[in-house]
Amino acid sequence: MEEMNVLSLDSEDILQYKLDGQFHIWPLVRFDLLTAISRQGAAGSPQRRVSAKTRVGNLLRGLSGIRLGRARIQFISSTLFCVKQSDTYTNVLEDYFCQVFPADSFVYENLDPLDYSRRLPRKNRRISTAFTYVDLVGKGIARFFRAGANGDIDAFCRHLSAKGVRRDFIDDVRVKLFRYAKQLRTQRLLYRIFLKLSSPRLLFVNCGAYGASNAILISEAKALGIRVAEMQHGVIDASHYAYNYGEEIKRSAAYGRYLPDYLLTFGEFWNGCTNIACAKVAVGHPHLSKIRERFVDKSVPGSFLVISQWTITDELIDAVLRIRQIYPQARIRYRLHPVEVLNAHQKERLQASGIELADSSSDIYSEFSLFEYVVGCYSTALYEAKAFRKKVLIMRHPLAFQYGFDRVGTVFEGDEAISGYNENCTRGESESALFYAEGFDRRYRDLVESTTRYDHP
Question: Is the pLDDT confidence value at 104 over 60?
């Protein structure tokens, strides 16, 4: 298939296809499909392989964390945002929001989606694992339903074919849609019951604009009159299809029922990287701001922190091994993405070259203080490294240019000594206020008071 403008699929006519005569198909598959097309289906490193025994054991242990919170501000988040600080874990997103309105905030923190583990102990006690089980029960019950013929799914797939979408992508979409067709009614019912019992007035949904099951949750929340928000958790750019839309879908009121009402961003720069049809509010990145105030750089010259990305693990390992050949005595650490695991061969390649391995449970900002260079391809951490005045190296790769990371640091091939580092590279400390707004407490308080009429003491 010739390269296509993926946003050309965002046309009004794609909204004619519905699963049950009411719920639109497009928000269920849009993000995954557009991303797959733009990357030409490039596969990444295998994610963690977990035994059924481990998953069941973790699910049973997670039951002890179920509780119902009826706070007016609620968050649907993930344990993967928790990092270890001293002897407890802090959620580097939601916990800061909760500190502004501690008595009126509650976090439904989902278990790790791959092995159902939790990062404990948590510093914040106003949390619950309940939403994980709400989700699993709905999907589990749907397994007993039989998927019958669905004319709209067939017509939708023919529509994609006529638009030039690859057959393998269409086949993947078809499988997902028949799964949604079985579980949609149950999911909608359970989400509605959950929302009525918990009664939020403002609901934050992590990755809300990504659609899929979050589109179902958001549509139910809006039907109940609940305001929905999403906070930025990573890079937003023109190639991020959760936050950028074709004109017809952007203007569509019908599609808007599946999107958050508010997107809270790190700073004004990010507001300009999205055309999503909701209110965009720059509130800042409180965890980054807090750590930066007391940051002490203890890095050793010629040391490297490599930020992995599970979609291109092997390419990044190749690059870091070339760095090792050039700098045989350098300290090099390879930090995994939260959903990433190395296979035996990948791990052996790194360890045989004396490269340290680290997972995502440690606070990356503390790691910044230990290394002179931060290396990667595309990752939020590369922007954040610039805020800490780190030297950022970008591995030459098509995705680095597609997502604009060639402007974040110095692009390198990895097969020659790193020289002539561009100290004037954009996204530097002098611009950080544009990327990471200050005054988080005031900005967030203003938003909450304007949306929920919150009366504070």
Answer: yes
Residue 144 Cα to chain centre, angstroms:
31
pLDDT digits (tens, 9 = 90+) for 157-212: 999 999 999 999 999 999 999 999 999 999 999 999 999 999 999 999 999 999 99
Confidence (pLDDT) at 457: 41
Strand partners, 31: none
Q: Which of 59, 81, 220 is nearest to 132 (CA)?
A: 59
- Cα distance between residue 254 and residue 79, in whole Å: 32
CATH assignment of 290-435, given 3.30.1490.20, 3.40.50.720, 3.40.50.2000, 3.30.465.10? Answer: 3.40.50.2000
Q: What is the pLDDT, as a whole number, of residue 418?
A: 67
What pLDDT digit, counting tens, does each position of 280-295 carry?
A: 999 999 999 999 999 9
What is the number of residues in the chain?
457
> Which of 244, 240, 282, 260 has its CA nearest to residue 76?
260
- One DSSP character per residue, 321-371 reads HHHHHH-TT--EEEEPPTTB---HHHHHHHHHTT-EEE-TTB-HHHHHTTE
Q: How many helices (H) and strands (E) does the chain have?
A: 18, 15
Q: Are 347 and 315 in contact (CB under 8 A)?
A: no
User: pLDDT at residue 46 above 70?
Assistant: no
φ/ψ (deg, to 5) at 88: -130, 170
What average pLDDT score do residues 92-111 get? 97
Q: Does 146 score more than 90 pLDDT?
A: no
Residue 405: alpha-carbon gap to chain centroid = 17
Helix (H) or strand (E) holding 410: strand 410-412
Q: At what angle do helices 213-223 and 26-38 cross, to 10 degrees?
A: 140
Cα angle: 345, vertex 402, 382; to 5 degrees: 65
| C-beta of residue 437 within 8 angstroms of C-beta of residue 284 | yes
Q: Where do the CATH 3.40.50.2000 domains begin and end in the chain?
A: 290-435
What distance in Å separates the CA atoms of residue 244 and residue 248, rounded to the nearest whole number?
A: 12
Residue 255 above 80 pLDDT?
A: yes
CA dihedral 39, 6, 244, 247 (to 10 degrees): 180
CA torsion sign for 268, 272, 273, 274 is positive
pLDDT score recorded for residue 417: 57
β 88-91/82-85 pair status: antiparallel
Residue showing tokens 């809006």: 222
